[in-house]
What does this fold into?
Amino acid sequence: MLIGVESEITIRVADELLMFLPATRRDTANRVPYDGTSTLGHIVESLGVPLPEAGPMSIGGEPAGPSTRPDDGDEVRVAAVPRPQPVPLEPGQDAPRFLLDVHLGTLARRMRLLGLDTAYHNDMDDPALVAQANAERRVLLTQDRGLLRRRALWFGAYVRGSRPDDQLRDLLDRFAPVLRPWTRCTACNGELVPVDKQEVEHDLEAGTRRSYDAYGRCADCGQVYWRGAHGDHLEEIVREATELVEAVRGNGRTEPRCRRDEERGWSTSISSWWEPRSSRTDGCSARSGPSRRTWRAAGNCRVGRSIRASRMRTPWYASATRNWRSRCGSAAGSAATGG
It folds into this structure.
């Protein structure tokens, strides 16, 4: 190397990664100074691309890892993460577990609506998020690039999009997880179980008791759910999500997404125990097709309020009733409406 001549390498990044680069460097190919000692991973991150978003890398056409040290004049190519992206799963686990940062509360509720195990806290700082993600082997979803650069984080992903609709599509397109719609509490992430009307009628308004007979309840926080009259938007979210996941998987599979029902010994699907009991015969739904699985949570929201009009800017479930609040305390009540 000549004295006074600065070493350089050329880095070509995939179009999907250009969003991470500064506006002045938002080109497919960039010539960057090289000190002769930095690793490929350090150079890529110095451009602005978090390593969890960088896919396969190569130098001169040969595969290279983040710890590789390039030579002066090398051409480096950085691809985007392949989709769908595999996530290491534990035995008996059929879908990744997720943890969302404080800015993705609406996305968290939608993921829970789809049955994805989704942890979310609206008051957790970055070190605590990384610690929980590592301890529980959850994929940390965030729009904080600095959070993704933390070396201790075992698995993270950047969520693209500013609208919850776009964020959910990006998540499903990236991971194509197995979905179990209508099986989780959108307030706390607990699992929903069927419950007799007599057990929860003291938590219900008079009109609800007259109109509905089938109910479910969160096994963790006690939130009560039933079929609602304004759930078209929710059903549309579930339908589009299911179709997208099937398209990403690309195998035309029609296997029911609620297959764990049978593993639990339930004789019918999740949708059937949301049927009003007057429409059942011998414990089964009277309809052969999919039931209308619109839910509403026990609470104080107005019956006439349109879910479609709200566009999910606020939680689609209501807060718990006063009776439930008095039994469980204000902390539990605030958890039901947090985020």
User: Anything to note?
Assistant: Residues 128 and 134 are 10 Å apart (CA to CA).
